[in-house]
Amino acid sequence: MSNETTSHTEFTHGKSFARHIPTVVRLLLGLMFLVFGLNGFLNFMPAPKDMPQDIMTVSGALMKAGYMTVVSGTEVLVAVLLLLNRFVPLALALLAPIVVGIITFHIFLAPATIGPGIVVLVMELYLAWAYRSAFRPMLRMRVTPG
Which residues form the domain of 75? Predict the structure, then answer.
């Protein structure tokens, strides 16, 4: 009987820990995008001084066009939704093109610093999988309106 109790306790403990993983990942992703989204407005983390000219040219053009303001605003909105656990599937859908942009930027302009982008991509994909039931209706091949 001792073995049954021990294995049941281990199983319950393991299951309860795994149950919290989506919450932890959601909060971490929300905090990351809150910090970086706010940085887009407040600039409390200045860009490194030794940035290659290609990156400076692209970044300058995106900022001048107002694109980065939209991205930063979206990041803050998504972060708040993730942190408050409200409309999480919508937040993940809004975040997906930003994550694609981050990965694309690093692949073509800064491959040496792609690590954090990969972490964000993995977190986004994990949460999309964790909330997959919310995405099922949108991924049906055929639907009827209404």
Answer: 15-44+51-133
